[in-house]
Amino acid sequence: MQRHDEEQVPPELDPWFERYDDDRPPRTMARRFRPFIVGAAAVTLVAMVLLVTQAL
What we know:
The chain crosses the membrane at residues 36-55. By secondary structure, the protein is an all-alpha fold.
């Protein structure tokens, strides 16, 4: 489905724009789960280091 520019309501005419516009960029899935992704990467890195040091 393709959206046309004519079908979209401009922000100036949108009644909900003033109430919910806080000048923040929309949160994407990557930004929402970034703390979990970084935590999982850190845990994986620590586990790999521990496995390598135990093998020596």
